[in-house]
Amino acid sequence: MQHKTAAVRVITFGTFDLFHYGHLRLLERARAHGQSLIVGLSTDELNEFKKGRKPVYAYPEREAILRGLRVVDQVFAEESLDAKADYIREQQADILVMGDDWRGRFDHLADICDVVYLTRTPSISTTATIERIQS
Ligand code: CTP
Asked: Ligand 1 centroid to 4 CA: how many Å?
């Protein structure tokens, strides 16, 4: 896909709970693919549906953390896992960037935007952090 005329808009999705170094690296690398970065931030309800637990930090707190980052330009609520194509069109995104734990899962969106999977940062995740604190 060609992106010669307008500024390239990158989009990514996630919960970003207990914001950690792996999240920061993902967002920095995503932003480097274009001129602006939009984050579809999972609502508390969607996270509960996806991961079977409420996020530790509620949506407004997670949103405030993301908005405070230099590399994030826009944040909106991701309410449904099945609406990625609609969100991509609404946000007029050119590239979808996801961590490679999602590799292959969004290849079908390649007809509306570029799809890029980035290597996850090893040895850190929200789940591992919660388990470490609990033990
Ligand atoms: N991510 C990453 N490296 C990590 C952890 C997450 O690149 N070590 C990326 C994911 O691939 C995703 C984004 O960060 O694209 C948001 O991930 P999220 O699911 O919110 O964070 P996790 O730490 O993976 O959460 P959990 O342990 O609850 O699955």
From this structure: 31
Distance from the Cα of residue 120 to its chain's centroid: 12
Of 83, 46, 105, 103, nearest in space to 16 by CA = 46
- Using the mean position of ligand 1's atoms as its centre, give its distance from the Cα of residue 89 in Å: 24
Range(s) of the domain holding residue 63: 9-134
Q: CA–CA separation, 132 vs 86, rounded Å?
A: 37
Q: Name the pairing type of β-strands 9-14 and 114-118.
A: unpaired
**Cα distance between residue 91 and residue 87, in whole Å:** 6
**Which ligand 1 atom sits nearest the alpha carbon of residue 12?**
15
Assess if residue 1 is contained within a domain. Answer: no
Question: Can you list the pairs that 102-108 forms with residues at least 24 positions away whose Cβ atoms lie under 8 Å?
Answer: none
CATH of residue 88: 3.40.50.620
Q: pLDDT tens across 56-93, in order?
A: 999 999 999 999 999 999 999 999 999 999 999 999 99
Domain total in the chain: 1
